[in-house]
Amino acid sequence: MLFKKKKYERKILLQKDVLDSILSFCKIKHPNEGILILKGKSKNGEIKINGLVIPPFSETGPTFAGFPHSFLPFDMSYIGIVHSHPSGSAEPSVTDLHNFFGLISLIVKSPYDDDSIFAWDSNGNTVPLSII
Ligand SMILES: [Zn+2]
Questions:
Q1: Interval between CA 30 and ligand 1 midpoint (Å)
Q2: Residue pair 79/39 in contact by the 8 Å Cβ criterion
Q3: How far is the CA of 4 from the centre of ligand 1 (A)?
Q4: pLDDT 10s per residue in the chain (132 long)?
Q5: Distance 68 CA to ligand 1 centre (A)
Q6: 85 alpha carbon to ligand 1 midpoint, in Å?
Q7: How many whole angstroms from 41 Cα to the centroid of ligand 1?
Q8: Measured in angstroms, how far is the CA atom of residue 31 from the centroid of ligand 1?
Q9: Cα-to-centroid distance, 126 and ligand 1 (Å)
Q10: Centroid of ligand 1 to alpha carbon of 93 (angstroms)
């Protein structure tokens, strides 16, 4: 008997208007980091991001951005976070991986243009990102 497990390639679809909101939010926060919660849906490995939420009680500085997860209401549409790296590196830091929230983490590096955004999973691997 042949038993084959279906494996889905992970990918992320990001709505253009959401991208624009993320980029302008990060520009306003510069030189501090900005952080936002991503809203969306995940199906068969495909993660579609269609909205943003400003986290309550968020704290940000030039090298950190965070918020207490315990203040978040339980909401299945919260699928990850996006935060900015004013330093210009899109690599997740050790702290970022420790504070991983949800399914996906987006990092926007300075100068916050359309090519400055990258997606990571909880192991620190890149995930392909398409703008729709
Ligand atoms: Zn970071």
A1: 14
A2: yes
A3: 38
A4: 555 555 667 899 999 999 999 999 999 999 999 999 999 999 988 999 999 998 877 888 888 778 777 667 678 899 999 999 999 999 999 989 988 989 999 999 999 999 999 999 999 999 999 999
A5: 15
A6: 6
A7: 23
A8: 13
A9: 14
A10: 5
Report pLDDT for 5: 58
How many other CB atoms sit within 10 Å of the CB of residue 5? 4
Q: Give the model's pLDDT for residue 6.
A: 58
Taking the centre of ligand 1 as the mean of its atom positions, its distance from the CA of residue 131, in whole angstroms, is 22
How far apart CA 36 and CA 66 sit, in angstroms, is 9
pLDDT at position 60: 81
Whether pTM exceeds 0.70: yes
Beta strand pairing status for 78-85 and 104-109? Answer: parallel
3-state helix, strand, coil in the chain (%, to 5): 15, 35, 45
Neighbouring residues of 101: CB distance < 8 A, sequence distance ≥ 6: 37, 69, 78, 80, 81
